[in-house]
Amino acid sequence: MTRDLIHDPHGGMPRLLEIMRRLRDPETGCPWDLEQDFASIAPYTIEEAYEVADAIERQAWDELKGELGDLLFQSVFHAQMAAERGLFTFDQVADTMSDKMVARHPHVFGEESRDKSADQQTADWEAIKAQERAAKARGGVLDDVALGLPALMRAVKLQKRAARVGFDWPSTDQVIDKIVEEAQELREATDPDHRREEFGDLLFVMANLARHMGIDPEEALRGANAKFTRRFGAVEAALSHAGKRPEESTLEEMDALWDAEKLREKAAKSS
């Protein structure tokens, strides 16, 4: 029966759970899978989440199914290790998520009216989360902002949490003034440790500016990365057409090709 399930192409979630259980079987499982623990698997979990985001960014819908499967497998892996320790099961993970979604959507699953904007729903969501944190008897306002988040994402979450209790600049202009101040402090920094500190301060305030402007800084930086990659690729292509490589060129020549590509992109957008 179990063997039939493992090889059933339509076995769905029970099949995946059984495969994970077999991989971790102490006697017949995979040696690599058996050696893993929560800490060793966590980096793969983060990597798979980014690969999901990458597939969405590229609109690679055929790849997205596989990437979502990889991410789901990470949850299954963690849940299996937890079950082995007697901590919780995958079903309990799913039930916890279901309970949370029902509790946080009283306008869908309860008696509240659905007649509210997306902004109002976001505010209500944050209020419910604040009540949940209070029920957990957390200490400070920032205590449960996860340490393992990417630094830029964590900066925004820290700032949002502080803003909810009134610790925030009232206007975007004040944030920009702070950016100018931090940039000057970075310019004046002399030793490496001081430069690193001031650079971090500048990045932190830039993240705050993004929050004030309603911009996802991670998404904005991904866009800038993609633009740089695209334009540098055009520079390489132009040089290759001339029988040259970047290392055989000069900065002035590459700058000129870069500017030409910028103009071409602007013309294409306006046409």
From TrEMBL:
It comes from the Bacteria. Belongs to the nucleoside triphosphate pyrophosphohydrolase family. CDD domains: NTP-PPase_MazG_Cterm (cd11529), NTP-PPase_MazG_Nterm (cd11528). One of its GO terms (molecular function) is ATP diphosphatase activity. Its EC number is 3.6.1.8. Residues 36-109, 175-231 form the NTP pyrophosphohydrolase MazG-like domain. PANTHER family: NUCLEOSIDE TRIPHOSPHATE PYROPHOSPHOHYDROLASE (PTHR30522:SF0). It holds the Pfam family MazG. It catalyses: ATP + H2O = AMP + diphosphate + H(+). One of its GO terms (biological process) is response to stress. This is Nucleoside triphosphate pyrophosphohydrolase. InterPro entries: MazG-like_dom (IPR004518), NTP-PPase_MazG-like_C (IPR048011), NTP-PPase_MazG-like_N (IPR048015), NTP_PyrPHydrolase_MazG (IPR011551).
